[in-house]
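Posting this for the archive.
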Amino acid sequence: IMTGAPLPAGCDAVLPAEVAESIDDRLYALSEVSPGKNVGQRGEDIELGTTVLPAGRTLRPQDLGILSSIGQAAIDVVRQPRVRIVITGNELLPAGHPASSSNLPDSNGPMLASLVTRDGGLPFLNNLPPTSPPLSSSPPHYLVPDDRVSILSAMQFDADIVLVSGGSSVGQEDHAPSLLAEHGELAIHGIAMRPSSPTGMGRLDHRLVFLLPGNPVSCLCAYDFFAGRAIRLLGGRSPDWPHRKIRLPLARKLVSQVGRLDYARVRLIDNQVEPIAISGASILSSTTTAHGFVFIPSNSEGHAPGTLVDVFLYD
């Protein structure tokens, strides 16, 4: 790349104006200048044949500058996947509202919107453009009631991926699986893992649809295992876990059941892994007090004290 003005014929250096003085018709150099001084050479920034930016890179401001400098006014990019977040449940109040004797404030909406943003997607909690931050600026009635017409309408939003939180099991008010099977394709329903066993996956026209359990920990777990990977891949990113991983010994026994994969929340104490006793899928605080989580594979009954395990850190 060559920047700046070309040198006049016969010149091999540039004298800065601040060390030159013009008097009458003469130019006086106030400092010596060696050959090649202040002269940019062809290819010193980017040589011919160099890969300027690798595929899969998230463009930064300086990347746009370098592309412009090599004459690329426009390039092909992978756009952010549009992700419609459908939160169902007649018992739910909008996020941030005080709980009542019969209603609970939604926690999955803000959590999923943040996870989608983390993974490079563009979250929609309603039929309007995404807002930031979603908790404080979302319209007050973004929740979808437990009726088939409302849920199907929300699932048909013009998005690349639809996340349905709640109504994914087999109860009378769990409409999402049957709606997906009737109007699209329900490829998977039910996963041998704890939590998140009611998780489902399929397609509705061009959309990928993930049915996530309503219990917050199950929702988080199912998102990380399945939906998050799809969003990252669709956005041109690596499908690998976004969590840092460390390997440490267990402080005490970690029990599981053969035939299912377990997602165990843990704390790190004195360079050891301490399992958190609370395992309920609705106890979201078990993920905020935890430092990370450990997988126990489906062919294992757990791990003995002292076993080295991989911990995926929430931070």
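The CA atoms of residues 264 and 295 lie 6 Å apart. Residues 131-139 have pLDDT under 50 and may be disordered.
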